[in-house]
Amino acid sequence: MTSAKITTTLSGLILSLLIATLAGCQTTKVPEPEILPINNPAPAGKTFLLEGFEEGNFWEAVSDSWDKWGNHNYSLKTALTKEWASEGKSSAAWDFDAMMTIIPENEKKKKRPPKKSGSAPKQDYQATFVCNALLKNNWTPYESLAVDFNNLTGKPLRVNVAVQDGSEWKWTETEIFTLGPGENKNVIFSLTERLKSDGQETSALVNGNNIYCAAIQILGENEGGKLLVDNIRLVKKQ
């Protein structure tokens, strides 16, 4: 065998070994940890049923009605349903659009408006459902808001609560929780800790004795779908 042939053969072997080594070094994608549903015990403090969705539907989807104050809102519609309830016989069914940087073909329902700046409570993506007909406006005796959810999307959802006072019209937002797929019981939103208003941390609701509007927000990227909500309770300070 000539030296040229030997060199060519060795080069081929080295190249084959290199390709095999690189293929063996490819990393396997580590699956993301599973997000389990929240299942807290019932609150210890005395509760006031703020909304049980038995007497009618007093919550509405913001949809595009707030676009002039901030980013486009992806809430679509609200309705009462009897397919699930954690209190009484009915709950609210909230539909929301896909909130994603890249929208799958089957989720391209409509052209998304460009993002705007403004003063409404917002994240990059949000679907907000609001109530302006609250049964109780003085929230100062209460330490938290407890809510039951049934997440029908099959994927985790990030949610929080925002309330607006009727004096200065300022919003206070709670911390964000991640709901697992399925039923999430007694999700507790503190009204005295980990709060923010105008981007600043605060330990109390702004003008908590005069709450005009309450909102539950779905935040961050997701594929859209339906969230069932029931048994919204104010929990008294102990």
Structure commentary:
The chain is mostly beta strands and 238 residues long. 10% of the residues lie in helices and 37% in strands. The protein has one helix and 14 strands; from the N terminus they run αββββββββββββββ. It has one helix spanning 3-25; strands at 47-51, 59-61, 75-81, 91-96, 126-131, 142-151, 157-165, 171-173, 177-179, 182-190, 195-197, 200-202, 211-219, 225-236. The strands form three sheets. Strands 1, 3, 4, 6, 10 and 14 form a six-stranded antiparallel sheet that branches. Strands 2, 5, 7, 8, 9 and 13 form a six-stranded antiparallel sheet that branches. It is globular. The termini are far apart. The relative contact order is 0.24. Mean pLDDT is 85; it is low at 4-8 and 112-123.
Radius of gyration: 25 Å
Distance between the termini: 92 Å
Instruction: Work out the helicity level.
Output: under 10%
Total of DSSP H or I helical runs spanning 4+ residues: 1
Number of strands: 14
How would you state the average pLDDT, rounded? Answer: 85
Q: What is the assembly state of the chains in this entry?
A: single chain
| Estimated share of beta-strand residues | 35-45%
